[in-house]
User: What shape does this take?
Amino acid sequence: MRTGGGRGRWWAWPIALLIIVVAAVPLVRYWLTNPADQRLVDLDVYRTGGESLLRGLPVYDAVTPAPQLLPFTYPPIAALLAVPLAVMSWPAAQWVWTAGVLACLGVTAWFGFREPLTRLRPAWAGPVVFGVMTAACLYLMPLRDQIRFGQVDILLVMLCLADCVARRPWWPRGMLIGLATAIKLTPGVFLVYLLVTGFGRDAVPEQRRAFFMAVFTATLLTVLPFLVIPHDAASFWFSALLDGDRVGANNATTNQSIRGMLLRLYLPGWLTSLIWLALGAVVAWYGFRRAREALLRGDRMTAVALTGLMAVLVSPVAWIHHLAWLVVVLAALAGRALGDRTPLAGTPLAEGPPARGSLAGGALIGGTLAGGALTGGPADGRDAGARASVSSGLTGAAVVAGVWLYYVLPIPWWGVSLRAADIPVLSPVAGRVVQDAFGLGAVALVWLLGRRPAAGVSGPAEPSPDETSPDETSPDETSPDETSPDETSPGDGRRLGSRAIP
Assistant: This one.
């Protein structure tokens, strides 16, 4: 994994690891030492599914111990994959899963920020800034919830992102998307993404092949449980999946999908469904269209970020932790500010000189999250371009920092408190808007990412053979809602009520 060549920067990777560990310790210490019946409750759901299989009990009739009483809500293949967790002791499973969450975040951050990181100078700056960015992403509320609940979302994000942006994957492209879709249905939006980019005018053959592989993998992993645990498979697809109440109160603050925001308006049910279908169709049309355009101009990261946000907005239920896609969103925003493009076979890229170690890149990455890693200026006669580049980088830094801070703060819960204050006009109107802040923010991010980049911004040259990514590294170079009385704000971390998370 080279970040600029040269020897003498191996020591930067232990520093990066130390930064991530130091950042993670307070979160891990807090959530793994809170009351036992409140600890990693979703991981307990997964283990319950695996334990049910080991004991020969119906998976979709089992619930976790009181007071949570959460049912297993995932496809049957997920129960089969959860058997190893059931074999472990509960304390061991907690530590193994938490370590896995951190590892998945690290891989996701590397794939996401790889392009700007590989352009930083000196060589040790890339690993150090990577550590700082990963630590910063860990404090996003959806990522904190991964540790708090023991959630699986960051794993799914990692699988889909790696499948889409790995330069030379050792697996058949599309297989990881199929796996993620089989484990949890929401990554199925990437099947739509592969469909719209792999077929039709200006179709990308690679995307078409990935689509077929993803469909094959998802189908295989869906059919397999019918051969191994047929009763449980039938129970999920023909009963549990159709029971929307299994996942918890859909109108709770934690549901930040378009449908969740509409449910909190308490309109007649038929009208809510009608508006949801209409708005969802518009958002999906815009999002997938812009994702396709982004891919065709070589901006894979924006395409993945837009598709990930579709999984949140158009889904019937999208809890706050589903917004783990924000890691990719931040990477896409950073890349757009720098003009990053991943070369796409069969499509032309804007011509322009390589942007290695540019001033804008250092300003954006360093100024936003790491304190800077600037390198030498441009060649003679490009002073105006350099000033424009720095200005663009600083603007991009402000956007990335603003989005990061917005999703670090528990803003939706401020809306709950504002509504509970019962201030005429302000509480029912402003309180509702603030309560929906993360969902509305996701809509704004779709619009922002969907805007075409400024004319004249060009990406880096195609990577040379001596610049490799993690997927092609040589062995010696590794490196309280008013509708849910039991629901409290995320700050207390003690009472979760009966919320189930799909």
